[in-house]
Amino acid sequence: MSITNITASTKGANYARLTELRNVRYGEILLLKKDDEGFVAEVWNTMGFNDCPPEQFNAIDAQKVAAENDAFVAFMNGPRFWTFDALEAGMRATAPTKTFGELTMFLAATVRFGDTPPDRIDYTDRFVHRDNFWEFAAHQPRYYLVTPDGQRCILQAYAHYVDPTQTLDTLHELGGRLNLPEGWTFEAEMDPQTTLQLGTGDENVACILQDELGNSYQRMVHFVELEA
C-alpha cells in the first residue's frame, strides 16, 4: 500500500491518495452509541496503521472495548480485504485515532440507524457518512449485485469472518453461492475496459449493503468511468 498527498479538484480539499489496495487486509470495530438523532455507529479502521493480523484482531475483547467507549456494543468487522485499487479520502489526516488491544485504528466513518437499534439484515441499505471515493482499475475484475430495478452495487470488500476460505480468485463463484432476494442477480465483469471512480456525492453519504457472507457492496450512485 502506498500513500501520497494530492489535491482533489472534484472536492476542492486536500486528500490522501492510497494505491495498491486490491486484496489489502484490514479490520474494523463498530461502536454502537446513541445521541439526540438516534442510534449511530462509529466505524474504526486499521488501514494505514497495520494490516489487521488475525491473531491480534481476534484477541480484542469486544465487551471490554464497548464498556471503555460508552458503547452499547462493539462489533468486530473483520478481517476484510479490499476489492478496489486506490482511494482518495478527505478526513484521514485529521481523523481521531484509538488503540484497541494492540491495533491502532482511525475513525473512518459513521453510520446512522435512526430510533431503532440495528439488526444484521442482509441485502439492506445502510447509509455511511464518509468523505472519500474508491477507484477500480481497468482490466481488474469487478463484481456486482444488481437489484430488481437494475441498480448496480459494486463489491468493495470481501470478508473472512463468515467464510475464511474466500479469496480474490473465488469471488466470481459468488453467483452460485449467495441466496439472493427475489429479482436480484450477481454479475462478474472480468476485464473491464475503463477505470471506475465511485464517490459519495456532495453530502458525503454512501449506500452500503452486505450479503450473507459479510461481503460489502456500494450502490453505484455517484461515479464516473474513465478511459484506460
Overview in brief:
This protein is mostly beta strands and 228 residues long. The protein has helices at 54-58, 62-68; strands at 2-8, 13-19, 25-35, 38-45, 73-82, 86-89, 97-100, 103-114, 126-129, 132-136, 142-146, 152-159, 185-189, 194-198, 205-210, 216-219, 223-227.
Textual characterization of the structure:
The chain is mainly beta. The protein has one domain. Helix content is 5%, strand content 48%. It has 2 helices and 17 strands. An 8-stranded antiparallel barrel has the order 3-4-8-9-15-16-12-5. Strands 1-2-6-10-14-17 form a 6-stranded antiparallel sheet, with no helix packed on it. The radius of gyration is 17 Å and the shape is globular. The model is unreliable at 1-12 (pLDDT under 50).
* Percent helix range: under 10%
How many domain units? 1
- Name the shape in a single word: globular
Order of helices and strands: EEEEHHEEEEEEEEEEEEE
Strand and helix map with partners:
Layout: E1 2-8, E2 13-19, E3 25-35, E4 38-45, H1 54-58, H2 62-68, E5 73-82, E6 86-89, E7 97-100, E8 103-114, E9 126-129, E10 132-136, E11 142-146, E12 152-159, E13 185-189, E14 194-198, E15 205-210, E16 216-219, E17 223-227
Antiparallel strand pairs: 1-2, 2-6, 3-4, 3-5, 4-8, 5-12, 6-10, 7-8, 8-9, 9-15, 10-14, 11-12, 11-13, 12-16, 14-17, 15-16
Short descriptors:
eight-stranded antiparallel barrel, 228 residues, mainly beta, six-stranded antiparallel β-sheet, disordered N terminus, 17 strands
